[in-house]
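Repro case for the chain-ordering regression, as requested:
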Amino acid sequence: MTQQHSATVLDQIIEGVREDLETRRAAVSLEELQRAVAQRGPALDAEAALRGSEPASVQVIAEVKRSSPSKGALAEITDPAELAASYERGGASAISVLTEQRRFGGSLADLDAVRAAVGIPVLRKDFVVEDYQVWEARAHGADLVLLIVAALDDAALRHLLELTHELGMHALVETHTAEEVERAVASGARIIGVNTRNLKTLEVDVHTFGRLAGAMPQDVVVVAESGVLGEEQIRLYAGHGANAVLAGEVLVTSDDPAQSISRFREVGALARAEHLDGATPPAAQAAFAAAQVAGETAQGTASSLREAPGPYFGDFGGRWMPESLVAALDELTETFDKARTDEEFLEEFARLSRDYAGRPSMLTEAERFGAELGVRVFLKREDLNHTGSHKINNVLGQALLARRMGKTRLIAETGAGQHGVATATAAALFGMKCCVYMGEEDTRRQALNVARMRLLGAEVVAVTNGSRTLKDAINEALRDWVASVDTTHYLLGTAAGPHPFPAMVRYFHEQIGEEARAQILEKAGRLPDAVTACVGGGSNAIGIFHGFLDDASVELYGNEAGGDGVETGRHAATITLGRPGVMHGSRTFLMQDTDGQTVESHSISAGLDYPAVGPEHSYLHSIGRVKYEAVTDAQAMDAFQLLCRTEGIIPAIESSHALAGAREVAANWVRELGPEVAAQKIIMVSLSGRGDKDVAAAAEWFDMLPQDSHEERVAQKGEQL
Amino acid sequence: MSTTGTNATTPATLTERIVPAGLSRNGDSALSRRIEDCRAQGRPALVGYLPAGFPTVEESVAAAVALGQNGADIIEIGIPYSDPVMDGPVIQAATTKALANGFRVADVFTVVRAVAEQTDAVPVVMTYWNPVLQTGVDEFARRLAEAGGAGIITPDLIPDEASEWFAASEAHGLDRIFLVAPSTTRERMNMTVGAASGFVYAVSVMGVTGTRDQVSSAAEDVVRRAREAGAERVCVGLGVSSREHVLEIGAYADGVIVGTALVRALGEGGPDAVGRLAAHLAGRE
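-- result from build under test --
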């Protein structure tokens, strides 16, 4: 769009606004409006509402918006009052109502309906150019009006602002450039918005906010407008010091706007806290937030999501690795590429999967558990595989490849011990040496699995560096591999790390999803409505998702470890709260500080206690195909107990996160669709492992250990919760 | 975005696929010239590594300055990182301590500036890539150049993933010091040498940092293969701890890199001990 042509967009809108204004003035005189204003109680204090009570909090202005000039019609809003009420329930601090009718499809009737429905400040969002509109806003109950600096000269801006304040309202004074910020400040504005949408081109540049926010006076409330596609942009704006963020389209089109707002406030508060500590949002995060808005991450989306070969999944993946290991990665890539088209290899892998691991794994309908949730639940029983989890699939595949490459020693990292046990098992089966690295903290949490690995002939090395958990075990395994790569294969246990691991590990787990899809079609006669799986690195999840990625009707949920709660900082919710970076060989979401130092993760589940995630999950998140949600320790343990008692199945604590995820999905359906409709819905849960290894941890959690005093345990649990 | 897998439909060589055409070799950069000067004097360049912020930012400045004033030609300032997969126990312990003492990535520029202003040594930064990525590759490069730094050694960034770094290093006149290893294939050696500038960092052994009694004979082979691929300046690192190593490696390489031994000296005897070890390694005692 050329500048000359588009410079008239605002002019054209205002021309229409003036015409409509005359029509209204002919029907309702200024004096009538003034009488109506006199009848109204005082306006709510929007400035205080947008500033919030906590310094490190970010407020959300949630918008009721039917259409926009840049996108056209957005959503059919049949009941703006109900939408606004849901915004308020979600924790919005103010509601913005578009009242411009020609381009935005709004009306004063929408404003009236919203005003009657909510008890928080309401913004009349329109193109205010005359006193009449300010009186009109107050007469219809608005507490806040929008004044666009670009549409007003200095005198008009100052005058309209003064009138707004005289009527007890506040104005959101909207700017687009540094010069407009100066004019806004000079006019006496107390709430200044930065609209990242360029008025001339209508394009959004999210970087605009950071550039202008730095020039704001300390005492001004700063509001970020436009470009909010999701949490990434909230993080960016809040990380540059936004007090409040205006979100419209993303909420109007959301399935659950209340939940979105609550998440925005959560991630916003964390980013703003970093801002208050003097940090600026990392460049990689800003670039990702901008690319999302520009739609770059969606580019190259293949018609099928099931065949992604690596090394890159959108912007994620690759090989961020020392040169010393590249030759080994190349050899592995080549061996894997040949093997997957080699009948002999495929037959041997299928034979081992069947005769040794026990595939296909069953699909069990969990009727009593499902009845508790109010939906039908099917469990994909990877817990019944040999060694007790899905891990054996990948281990058998990679051990076969190691043998093809002439390697005689396997090394592995392990968190919960499931992958270590599986690797030790394969090493015994193939007559190879085996060394498993395990964080010291995890050897304590999973003592039984340590003994199991040693029984199988493996050496277990307790890693005492860093957080002494899974990530440090991976570091130590990589150090071993650099020195031993001639004879040793690093049997990475999750769909993360450098190429070819993410694509290769997924390949060996694809059978989970393929079996599950065929089994549910046979048992239920249709596809499930949702699939849930726990995500640490994400290998069982990518395996089961693979079967359904191209089935648009199937909602996919990745359940990350929320630990003590994402708001506490003690969690492992990498996608939910992390940002893009590189670690352990791939570009992916990480839990990291603004310097790029990895932040330690926390979870009751050793297998999910990892501050990164497989790159394909980062990609599926970036395109919105899979929803990643955090499940706290407490939610996971409740689901653990429920499955034990309703189905006679003791799940791994990792898998219990997927059970709890299913519970959330089910609760939403019951609430939104009613119990009868919900009862017909089907959720498939990836029951990735069994809970034998977790018996001690669960007994401790539920205070079932007789030798300990009850009081002490209750107190400990109180702290954990 | 580059790819690291082989692609049968692309006829071009690995070098053509990864290294941008017309990338400068910086033959007359400060770093290159210093190594050439040493060569003219008939000796290898002495390259010393110390992490920034260990044990504190102030002491790391003092140690780096002592290193530069006692015979180091080039100083690698390391950025402490939470997940140093290429480092052995001594350097891990040092960088962990630096982080615990509050090191921030921006502190590295303070140390670089001190070396540039107070010594004749040429400062470069050695860093895992994520801290650079989070700072912003171009922004990091700009600030490094401004502080007087000559380039970056990148232990976990291979040219395959370096497109942003190619652009930033060209824009700010910095050298790109990539690593090559005994396991590096001929094709990758050609590509990496083509992507590097200043010098090529030859990893002498397959392993992580740490002193070793003997420097593996593999080192000489890596240097020879790097030269065959067109490398004009090759320095050898990993395992070097004594004057004997320096002389032995200096017979075939253009520079000798010492890390762990210096870090240990700093931990045990402070900046003075670093100065004494540097003088010993440089043959000044």
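Ordering looks correct now. Residues 3-294 of chain A form a domain with the TIM Barrel fold (CATH 3.20.20.70).
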